[in-house]
Amino acid sequence: MTSAALIPAIPYDRTAVEDLDASAVLAVALESLGSDRLALSASFGPEDIVLLDLMARLTSQPRVFTLDTGRLPDETYSLMEAVRDRWSVEIETYAPDTAGVEAMVRVKGPNLFYNSLEHRLECCHVRKVAPMRRALATVDGWVTGLRRDQIATRAATAKIALDVDHGGIWKVAPLADWTEARVWAYIRAHELPYNALHDQGYPSIGCAPCTRPIAPGEDPRAGRWWWEQAGHRECGLHVTWAPDQATTPLLILGDQ
Fold first, then answer.
1. What is the SS3 assignment for 127-150?
2. How confident is the model at residue 7 (pLDDT cuts 50, 70, 90)?
3. Active-site residue 124, yes or no?
4. How far apart are CA 212 and CA 200, in angstroms?
5. pLDDT at residue 243 tops 70
6. Catalytic residue among 124, 207, 210, 235
7. What sign does the CA torsion over 152, 39, 35, 252 have?
8. Which of 76, 110, 144, 164 is the 20 to 30 A CA-CA neighbour of 206?
9. What's the average model confidence in pLDDT over 127-134?
10. 12 or 209: which carries more pLDDT confidence?
């Protein structure tokens, strides 16, 4: 991974960044880091589709990477092909380590995640967290579709902040202050492709065995790891934002 001392600064203070709209946040990050060192981390949810469209309006070659866990729904793979056709982008795909998956499944079975929270987090680590670390080692910043209203653990999401868990690279969440309704309004207004499962009651889509449709009125995250307590419904990729990050001044590399 790039040394933190060598990662380019984003020379804007936190207050100014929080006042910018999504496209302007992306423009700041692209200008500061370059299109070859800033990548969209896409699981191909509706937020990722919006972000890719916004990035494609700012750069001719937006970088996109995804984590193929080996357990994704067919509808997600179909959407990936639609994305390639729509934006002519290369999707950098990161798969879990084969030996790690084999060892885990050999001892605990292919559906170990239903047994306990510990086993589910182990599966998420092998199939998602570890490949994500490899992906992030290739960039100075990554773009994510996190929104503050998705779940309590994301309420303090900053639009741009240092990602201390991944070597001090930049984590960029341009849609942090968007609502779900605004995301879908953008998709419909621009006739963008999206996962067919959304029309079948799936607001949030991950691995096939860990995702189900929700009933009317249920929390949008209720279909993810539904057999667990609501407070645990994260995979480990986005759970370490500092609690006070929403009000902490944006640190600029090189200032200290």
1. HHHHHHHHHHCCCCEEECCCCCCC
2. confident
3. no
4. 10
5. no
6. 235
7. positive
8. 164
9. 95
10. 209
* Structural domains in the chain plus CATH codes: 4-232 (3.40.50.620)
Average of per-residue pLDDT across 140-146: 96
Q: How many other CB atoms are found less than 10 A from the CB of residue 190?
A: 11
Mean pLDDT along residues 214-228: 88
Q: Which amino acid is at 73?
A: P
Calpha distance 45→168 (Å, rounded): 26
Asked if residues 144 and 41 have their Cβ atoms less than 8 Å apart, the reply is yes
Q: How far is CA 233 from CA 4, 60, 129, 218, 223, in A?
A: 30, 36, 15, 14, 10
Q: What is the pTM of this model?
A: 0.85
In the chain, the percentage of residues whose pLDDT exceeds 70 is 86
- At 52, which helix (H) or strand (E)? helix 46-56
Instruction: Give CA 167 to chain center in angstroms.
Output: 17
Q: Residue 27 has which token pair?
A: 């423009």
C-alpha distances (whole Å) from 121 to each of 35, 172, 234 are 32, 25, 9
